[in-house]
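Chain X:
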Amino acid sequence: MNISETAILVVSFGTSSEQIGISAIEQLESRIRDDFPSYVIYRAWTSEWIRNRLLEQENQKINNVSEALNQMKEDGIRNIIVQPTFVIDGEENQRMRKEALVYAKDFSSMKFGAPLLGDEVDAKMAAIAVSQTVSASISYTEDDLVVFMGHGAAPDTLIHESMDWKPDPNAMYTLVDNFLQQSCHSNMVLRLMNKPGSIEEILALASSQQPRKIILVPFMIVAGRHAQKDMAGEQETSWASRLTTAGYSVQCIMKGLGEYDTIQEIFSEHIKRIL
């Protein structure tokens, strides 16, 4: 590749959370910029609602994928590396790829990096990363129960091109959960916000373990709206409220995966594979 004509497009869902969420994305982008100083880094967010909100309320314009690729073409970029910051190869990632591929003919090459959990190796690395970070950064003992909240996706939302079957979009989350308990800490689990029965599973697990306290941690790139409301919110349906009502001491860690150095490293490794 000609470095002067090659650029990296970092694609995120975006966040409407004013400080915490945007900081996580910016930290991830900054890490990629530091790791690949010879390449220009562009940004795109896929959420139209969030982009419109930032434009209306803060006069901040953030490109979508099409706008970013058009800008890259105008800037003379010929080789594109598209690196998504999504957790899994879910509906959002597939929609992004389709949108980007429309412009493939305008460039000499367009290659895509994997999302965070691209394969089994990524899942193991992510499990190690989050378990080590949580263990080192909070007041945690083996008497506590650590629950990571992932977003999760509905299986019927995914249809891979050239496939006549629908893979389970949450399979990679299951791998992370298995690695957490088998290779990291038996009292760390990953459960999904969008999977029915998740909070009931956590309550049953807590009942059997009787932990000193339950620590809730978002397994999402940003500690945004879902972490702030569905995980840690004051409404009675949040995980924190359900667990508190059941009599457990609950601590919420408001830190997105994009803020973890070790998670940032996984995304950089995905780009290195392409290069």
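Chain Y:
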Amino acid sequence: PEEQAETRTKKIVDLYTAFPATRQMAEFARTIYNNVHNISDVDICNAPDGQLLKWIDTEYSLFRSFEEKVYAPIYNAPFRNCQELITFSNIILNRRKSRAGKSLEHHLATIFTAAKLEYEEQVVTEDKKKVDFLFPNGTAYHNLLFPADKLVFLGAKTTCKDRWRQVLNEADRIETKYLFTLQQGISKNQLREMKHENLKLVVPAPYRASFDKEYQPEIETLTSFIEMVKLKQC
């Protein structure tokens, strides 16, 4: 399977002279992994946490191959000064960070679709703020007759740090906010603050063990989050 994945990756990279759009890159990664391992929607629904991490790993390998092809002509030539090198390095790092954040959203959307959840992305709420995922949709959110306890908000950030506070006021009708992150081992102080602000973390199942044992029971996995949303949408 690894050799097949490498062969498929090379075929895709050979077709391009520049980076494809982030959505397309994420789709390529899923297609490579799913085809090589014969993954169906049923498989995705049975183990969404593991599938997500496999797609992310596959996409990272694909992205690195694109980096080597696109950037090789630049870094193979000498830089005239230190500032040129720093500028080039920042371009690489910023592209990596931007791609990682958006591709995470694309992979999550694919999983939610496979699970047959009703959701909408980038819904505008109060003060023109946008939420990453709203269940079931923006129409229900803006309909004050729709029960607030049937609404679910999910933000998605590869890392939290202090950025988790951004999601607290993105959907005023929803008291408990959910935030999916790939960051492991967040400090007890931050977890305590999150709990105080009615923010619940969602992480891939293998990552939950990296958190303080006191807070592990309160942290959702992708699987348990999907089940919770399903119950609300029944």
